[in-house]
Write a structure and sequence with these properties.
Pfam family, one: Sigma70_r2
InterPro entries: RNA_pol_sigma-70-like, RNA_pol_sigma-70_dom, RNA_pol_sigma-E_actinobac, RNA_pol_sigma70_r2, RNA_pol_sigma70_r4_t2, RNA_pol_sigma_r2, RNA_pol_sigma_r3/r4-like, WH-like_DNA-bd_sf
Number of helices: 8
Structural class: mainly alpha
Strand content: under 5%
Keywords: DNA-binding, Sigma factor, Transcription, Transcription regulation
Radius of gyration: 17 Å
Order of helices and strands: HHHHHHHH
GO molecular function: DNA binding; sigma factor activity
Protein name: RNA polymerase sigma factor
Number of domains: 2
Shape: globular
């Protein structure tokens, strides 16, 4: 099991991670240059290397879960802050990327739960003015598949995003979602069936 995550304290995006995030689905499996973390690296060295190699792909993944670029960036930044604070307690540093994925999924769930509560009790008013972030995600949402994903139950959407856009194995998805491989198969199969139905209705 991953260690308890500390409270976020400081975010230090740098270098390549500062460029605007490309949220097109074709780039979701990019940024995989770093494999296992070398033995002997401290938290600063390891997390900096992980950040440079995987920040952008994790944000692209989070965008599909929370449907908002700025929120996705915050979710991923918080996940990196958490793993930095917990680095000494990691039982297996080579699984740091798996820990980050799980943290991103869990934080995305928290965001969606909070958003649902806010939207339920928020007073009805004028629609929000368009923003740069909304413009970027709007380009992604024009895809019929992405639009259909939004109509799926959360667990089915997570399973499909991690499998087909994150290109993860069933074991990796099970770890990220905190469920069994059998449950991953079930959510994936049901999600694909529901996705086909939604796409047929949209067409």
């Amino acid at each position: 099991m991953p260690p308890n995550e500390p409270e976020p304290h400081e975010r230090k995006p740098s270098g390549d991670a500062e460029r605007p995030i490309d949220v097109t689905t074709e780039t979701l499996v990019a940024d995989r240059s770093l494999g296992a973390v070398p033995v002997g690296w401290d938290a600063d060295m390891a997390v900096t290397a992980l950040y440079s190699a995987h920040y952008r792909s994790l944000v692209r993944l989070a965008v599909l879960l929370v449907r908002d670029v700025a929120t996705a960036e915050e979710v991923v930044q918080d996940a990196f802050v958490a793993i930095h604070g917990a680095w000494r307690r990691l039982r297996d540093p080579d699984k740091a990327l798996a820990y980050l994925r799980q943290s991103v999924v869990n934080r995305s769930r928290s965001v969606l739960r909070h958003r649902a509560v806010v939207e339920k009790y928020a007073p009805k008013g004028l629609p929000d003015a368009p923003s740069a972030e909304n413009g970027a995600i709007g380009e992604l949402e024009r895809s019929a598949v992405i639009e259909a994903l939004r109509g799926l139950p959360a667990r089915q959407r997570e399973a499909l995003v991690l499998r087909y856009y994150g290109d993860l194995s069933e074991a990796q998805i099970a770890h990220a979602m905190g469920i069994s491989k059998g449950a991953v198969k079930s959510h994936t199969a049901r999600g694909m069936a529901a996705l086909r139905t939604i796409l047929e209705q949209l067409s």
